[in-house]
Amino acid sequence: MTTKALTFPRIFPRPKATTGIWSWIGTVDHKRIGTLYGITSFIWFIVGGIEAIAIRAQLATPENDLIGPEMYNQLFTMHGTTMVFLVIMPLSAAFFNWLIPLQIGARDVAFPRLNALSFWIFLFGSLIINFSWLTGDAPNGGWFGYAPNSGITFNPGLGMTYWIVGLNVLGVASIAAGLNFIVTILNMRAPGMDMFKLPIFTWMTLVTSVLIVLALPILAVAGIQLQTDRIYGTHFFNSLGGGDPVMWQHIFWLFGHPEVYILILPAMGIVSEVLPTFARKPLFGYGFVVFAGIVIGFMGWFVWSHHMFTVGLGPAANTAFSVSTMLIAVPTGVKIFNWLGTLWGGSIRFNTPMLFSVSFIAMFTIGGLSGVIHASPPTDAQQQDTYFVVAHFHYVLVGGALLGIFSGIYFWWPKMTGYFLNEKLGIANWLLMMIGFNLQFAPMHWLGMDGMPRRIYTYAENMGWETSNAAASAGGIILGIGVLIFMINVWYSMRNKVEAGDDPWDGRTLEWSTSSPPPPHDFDEIPQVKYRDDFWFRKYPETISEYYHDHNEHDQAVPSGAQNDLEEENLPVVSGGSDDGHGGIHLPDMSYYPFILGVGVAGIGAGFLSNNAVLFVGVGILVWGMLGWSMEPVNDPEPEHD
Amino acid sequence: MHRVSKLSFPLRPAFFLLAPLAIALLAACTPDNKQSTFGTAGPIAKDQADLFIFIFWIAAVVFVMVEAAIIYIAIRYRRRSDSDKLPHQTHGNDRLEITWTIIPVLILAAIAVPTLISIWEQQNHVPQDQGEVLNVEAIGHQWWFEFRYPDQEVIVSNELHIPVGRPVAFKLESQDVIHSFWVPKIAGKVDMVPLNDNYMWMIGDEVGEYYGQCAEFCGIAHAHMRFRVFVHEEEEFQAWLKGMHTAPDAPAAGSPEESGKNLFAANCSSCHTVDSTAPGSYAREVSAQQARWNGWISDIENSGIVSAPNLTHFGTHSTIGAGLKDLNQKTLEEWITDPSSIKIGTRMQKHAAVYDTPDKTAKLSPSEVSDIAAYLLSLKPGSTPAGETASSVGGDADGESLFVTNCASCHSTGDDTIVGPGLAGVADRAGSRVAGQDSDSYLKESITNSGAFVVDGFAPVMPGFSHLGTDSIDALVTYLKTLD
Lengths: 642, 484
Fold this sequence. Notes:
The structure holds two protein chains of two kinds. Helix content of chain A is 65%, strand content 0%. Chain A is mainly α. In chain A, 62% of the residues are buried. Chain B has 13 helices and twelve strands. Chain B has a five-stranded mixed sheet with strand order 3-2-1-5-8, with no helix packed on it. Chain B has a three-stranded mixed sheet with strand order 4-10-9. A two-stranded antiparallel sheet of chain B has the order 6-7. In chain B, helix 12 packs across helix 13 (470-480).
């Protein structure tokens, strides 16, 4: 039993490159993987945005024949699919990757190679779905894929097969990533960082990851059933064969509603970091915000049928899901009030990240309130499947999730690159996005109340929908210009570098304590954590008693560590605690196997779309990759650290 | 460490932001729009609108409070210079937070009560006490609506007629994909789900014409799947019902209408019924529609038959193409010539043999199209009282006219294949195809049970014609045997 006996014959040598394409393909560094997620999903954001602008161009005037119904159906299907699965989820994953180890004082995620695998599967899954554009047969059954319209009888061709195979591949990536972050957050926190000292973004990531791990397998069940319906002629959802199309809706929304919280909770986490930093105050009611997040994550499982109020489930089911849907507005409202409480009495600086975060509160509130309106089934009977609903969820997902993500980009860009994004361009970016966004989506409320259904490629002249549609289309262009300014800002800021330093915003959490950009090993020394917002209290030790004194008076849930510290009058240690010695830093070595496994999964997907020969090649690559992976030690026997 | 430009809150941008919102709000009051959910004409839509307005005002108050708080905070607590002292490091305030948890619960309870009352009022039972209930079966097809009045034995497509003030109980069905039945001014939508029939009711409060539209994405022509609802005074409604049982007058000999009638019989009649006025025709149309569906679904690629709107008294309709265009000679000619110029994706253009041309326009001359249009527009209740006219099938069965009406769009009387085989000399062939079966019984069985003998090389798409009745089938067989 020597190490030699276990050595798998290496087809590829261990990657050693530190620059160039091979360094990216072999990387297991959470920061580099985060960057890959960010760049990839931003490219899809542009694609999804172009799809949106094409949709708005078609709807700008009545009886427009710019884009026919076939292309239009493909555009709205792919716009929804892209923005949900290829943009907001992976952009959030980019933040998870970049920030979670830094926020909890770790050197990497728990399973670095699995992390790389998640990215590669995501990349290939996104390519599979979008490859359909090149065949001219893009998916056209809606991002919700309602049966039986998504089945092979009513939707022949490969379009929806690309869609469902792509989603099944993407699901694997999400589940693996979710597991990885749960384990990372639970097990790799720096010494002293108990759960109630976790930064709030990390908390929301944890809740999101749990939701991902529980929700995506449900989509996988529906996805595999639909895939076999389409490829092998089963009848899970095919009403002609006795399958039940309503079952698809139940399974899809049982995934789909938690998915909404998967999309919004990370943005809520980002906002909960940005607001305290720029108000120079701790988050108001940390415990309430954390519990509100957990409650949302829990109650999110009991509201799915509010997507189905008009399906005919009967008054009893509609009553139950109406009440549960209204209840979930409570923890959401609590968060909004706590954010306002955070700002109240603060010393607020309105830099770009803060503009986006404050706008998040303002816009998300609108989306939340319109959500309460159609939580009432009788009201929803008029709004379901109209532009009112389109307006609602764009206020949640653009006014909420996307503004939160932009806030996060401006906020952490200096940490990720070492340089600021330009402030003036940032404000122009924010302003144009806000004007464009509201001009685009506010009129959709009236369109919905005026009876304009969703997913229609054109509308008649005498319906009174012209003005609002024209405004919405104009807004779409302005929103697009706003995003363009962002790209110009990135380009400009990389040309004209303004150094940010390690802690440009006077931050509160651990990521600001290391250098910008952080070294590959994140922290020279693993920090010792004594307080919530530990880094802040290290910088401003005089505020500790202010914070914890109040706490002891009013709050039952005093963090035990903090109390002890006070009792021992143990003032913070500015330079981290334990010292393993610099020689003790062990980083996982790079590996090609995650990429190879990703290729194998992609090959299996391509096989379902073409023929069994490709499928077997995919399985072969997968098996080979798994064997190679399992035989390759995380670290070579003799690490080559300097 | 604090190397950041000093910026006060950009107030002017905030103004620009709110301006479009305010303008849009002003434009929002549009109860006169055809599908506006305000300005309602029925108790269900009114309840739904009232509930919306109730929740809207609560939401508006919360909205104004939150946005005002944001603006106030942004101005009041903005940092004036980087030398401002650190704010008090408040961690929270339990009493405050519990308060703002409980207040939303109370607000939502206030919303929930009228919501639940409305759910049980609207979705539980048809209000029997508000007048005699009219039963209607509404069926969503890709991409048109069929309305059946089972008690009155009336079938009409895309234009629903109901009496004012009486509850109408709907059974909502679909054979193909999910559609949604929605008349915004009278009642919110309920989906039409295959294998899952739904029930709803509505009352039209005001006489008038109302717009309806399919609200669930149902494929390529979803945008064009619309319909109209006509709410009539009771007498007017009864007159309409009576008209639906009164056959149209026969076209004058040599008129364009007569030519149109023959062209329609030859090219259109295997999918479109025009004679659902006679007693017994309701049941025939129900089974014929089912047969068309079976024909289409059993061979979607090659079917020459497809579910199609019943065109009885089409001349009384106000629109064509499922509520798309006003009905007149010109639009109807456009429609017949090239349906996709009005509605992209119609099944008719894909499947009907008459559109089997390179550019998918009808194999008809402009004058033929004009004749068909004139004929369809002439289909109105005639001068003969209801019940006294025989339908074109049954009665004194004339084999040739039966053939023209029922068979000619798929079978030629020569050797040409249209959809099915040409029938010249069919008598000889029929007698020799199955040992021990003579040509009479072979032909009869082929007509009544079309799947029994499918000639090699042809798809099993022919619907059964047993609804024609024994006399008619005998006449048809006699006629067929004369072909050589």
